[in-house]
Amino acid sequence: MRYLIYLLPLMFFITACGGGSSEQEQQAESTATEAQSSADQSSDVRTIEITGVDQMKFVVEGEAEGITIGDPVAGGMPLLETITASPGEEIRIVLTTESDLPASAMAHNFVLMTMEADVQAFVNAASKARDNEYIPSDMSDQIIAHTDLAAGGETVEVTFTAPEETGEYEFICSFPGHYAAGMKGILKVE
């Protein structure tokens, strides 16, 4: 207690002297500049916001350039069917899961498969890869890009470059049962 009497004035003195130096201010400005530079670089990346819902579907807010939508699913949000991209185009997928269920019962990811992938074999192997977020490590050669799993209220993202080869590339959710329920779509590179 006796030390507290000496400690309080010392703390007041340290804080009253400004606490920050011009070096710290320069570092803060540098960090802000780097963040802005990063934001400027990512502005060339097309971002597609997707929602994973309890009905085991990918949905979007509505129509947007470069996507094809289907009938409304959850809360009137339309089903995401197709994403169209140019060869070599950079795309960012931002996936948010809307669910009140526990993560062990309902979580979603976005997995973009290669054109040659055996999607059904991948899905079968994924169901046994719980410890690796349902991504079978021995089949990584069949994946172009993927997100982590997102439970209810969580958001994950991945940025990738569309393949140079034109064609159709399937994207799926690899959480058990979701692909079979229709949680899939096509990236059409043309």
UniProtKB/TrEMBL annotation:
For the keyword Transport, the answer is yes
From the UniProt entry, list the residue stretches annotated as the region Disordered.
Answer: 24-46
Q: Which residues form a coiled coil?
A: none
Biased composition, class Low complexity, residue ranges: 24-44
Keyword Transport attached: yes
Q: Where is the Blue (type 1) copper domain?
A: 82-190
Cross-referenced InterPro entries: BlueCu_1, BlueCu_1_BS, Cu-binding_ET, Cu_oxidase_CS, Cupredoxin
Pfam assignment, any one: Copper-bind
* Signal peptide segment: 1-18
Q: Which SUPFAM superfamilies match?
A: Cupredoxins (SSF49503)
Keywords for this protein: Copper, Electron transport, Metal-binding, Signal, Transport
One GO molecular-function entry: copper ion binding
> What's the protein called, per UniProt?
Azurin
Q: Which organism is it from?
A: Fodinibius sediminis
The top of its lineage is: Bacteria, Pseudomonadati, Balneolota, Balneolia, Balneolales
